[in-house]
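Q: Predict the assembly, please.
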Amino acid sequence: MTYCVGLLLNEGMVLLSDTRTNAGLDNISTYRKMFIFEEPGERIIAIMTAGSLSVTQTTIARLREAMEDPESTPETSILLAPTMLKVADIVGAMLAKVRSEVEEKLSAMNQLASASMIVAGQRKGGEMRMFLIYPEGNFIEATEDTPFLQIGEHKYGKPILDRVVKRTTSLADAQKAVLLSMDSTLRSNLSVGMPLDLLVIERDACKVDSKRRIEAGDESFRAMSEAWSLALRDGFTRITL
Amino acid sequence: MTYCVGLLLNEGMVLLSDTRTNAGLDNISTYRKMFIFEEPGERIIAIMTAGSLSVTQTTIARLREAMEDPESTPETSILLAPTMLKVADIVGAMLAKVRSEVEEKLSAMNQLASASMIVAGQRKGGEMRMFLIYPEGNFIEATEDTPFLQIGEHKYGKPILDRVVKRTTSLADAQKAVLLSMDSTLRSNLSVGMPLDLLVIERDACKVDSKRRIEAGDESFRAMSEAWSLALRDGFTRITL
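A: Predicted assembly structure:
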């Protein structure tokens, strides 16, 4: 399982992903689920992945191949695509293609291989945009009303986002919000696990503002998690029925 | 969809269920999902249901028939069963039987009909016990380590329970906890809806201590929900990253 969340705010974008991958309960590994493609000042694209690792790895690898291909065009390379909408299109088409290839291989076993992605970014002169790409390649976009997108195990971490995240939330608060959302998920679902990858992109900078890997023993994450537990229990105590 | 939660505590038991039933998104109704069978001072049994309404209604109706049957035995009537374990057995067997009958009817349509239940109660002289009955009729029991059971849409409301509910939680705090757990669920999933049924059973009383239906406009529930939102936002503000 996986939990990835992306926030699209007035000040910029905040993305957070876990790294746990499992094939059954007894085969657990760490794989990066956040991929960054950047031409600083010109273009920044971040992709987060959830679902079958064979599908997501191959999709990302093929997207990379297309970028590095000297004959790549705005139709094939996300680094040349004229708009973020076109980027979402390219990623969606590749994801759907890879997924159907993998499912064909698995069809004899009656197994499915599904995957979804969050694609976020901005091109100089364009808008900051964030998309959730479905396994079939179609997608939806974060908006003013719903400024966050989630993939993977999204339910445990949604209540906190529903309550505190607005389009006007600051980037500092947004980082707190996604980390607390992840914290609730980590507590409830063993198949979501540390380390975490946290990315902040400021509006119109078209480059990584900060990128941080939070390891299992991270002191500030632990302190925040404990402070939040304390705040919840404290708030709980003060409420009267 | 549905959300039902039961807490098994040192002081007693607290049960909460919603009432929304839907067949598709455009056919929404209100049905009670909590059923109480009581011989005050002798025996109290509460059953909460989730899943296909045709399965849960028929299961409850057959259990009632068995209780009212003048020839009922400790093997067939949950009001005569010698232990709560036997009650769980009887409910589980009936649920599995009804489910398989209904699924047979649906098999031509390639549809499944599933349902699960929480069975909680105490018999004079016996222990207070709480079971989660699976669609196949097998069951698990709430324990010291895990003093709560949930059926239906359980994920949104689990983080708060994980954080505040212990076996030693008071009945007053337990009511707050389940209502806040429900509040998070109501906000995130439209297929869980008011009114709510809240039941409190004190240890060894073997009768209903309090039973309350909380309607959609309930002032105290609304106030609690708002106080909780405020406490969360307040706690969130005070945390530093």
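Chain B touches chain A at residues 155-156, 158-160, 162-164, 172-173, 175-177, 179-180, 184, 187-188, 220, 224, 227-229, 231-236, 238-241 (CB under 8 Å). The helical segments of chain B are 53-68, 84-106, 158-164, 171-188, 219-238.
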